[in-house]
Amino acid sequence: MTPLRVGLTGGIGSGKSTVSTMLAECGAAIVDTDLIARQLSAPGGAAIDALRAAFGVDVIDASGALDRARMRAIAFADSDARRRLEAILHPMIGRESERQAGASAAPVIVFDVPLLVESGRWAHRVDRVWVVDCSEATQIERVVARSGWTEAAVRAVLAQQATRAARRASADAVIFNEALSLSELARQVRLLWDESIALVR
User: Fold this and answer.
1) Is pTM, for the whole model, over 0.85?
2) pLDDT in tens, 68-122
3) Do 93 and 112 meet the contact criterion of CB atoms below 8 Å apart?
């Protein structure tokens, strides 16, 4: 049986991580590209030497890991720096993602990719794209509540991400996570899961 490859994405604060957890509970294999990126940039991670060479010792913290806050600030302020960062991390993330996918026997493999639309590459690697969506106001409210960021900081991140319209235009399915209880959200996820399983049987 060839597994169905699903790309899951959504803007910051959309609830994508919650949906990913629910899909795992349904039986999907989750390939979390953000987790892979964190592992690559952890102390001793495979990307650390290249990151130090490209950006200097100032982006490496006392533990030997990438200083993510400092790197995020640099990448937001300088599009060339962002491209250099992506040139280091994205090929490594792609290889590890495929390794994890190849090791799985699950009927559905979900690639959790925050910047799936922005990358321009992932849409060709998956069979379906699912987008978790909500209003921008709800995104801001959720991120401020969970992280303590200012509204301005959240808006700065949103400005770097694809628009809601662009994400929805790329989607084979949209999970509209606005004013839903967890049980209502889980019901939407289960419906998509059941449709997906039917495709691979």
Assistant:
1) yes
2) 989 988 988 898 999 999 999 999 999 999 999 999 999 999 999 998 998 888 8
3) no
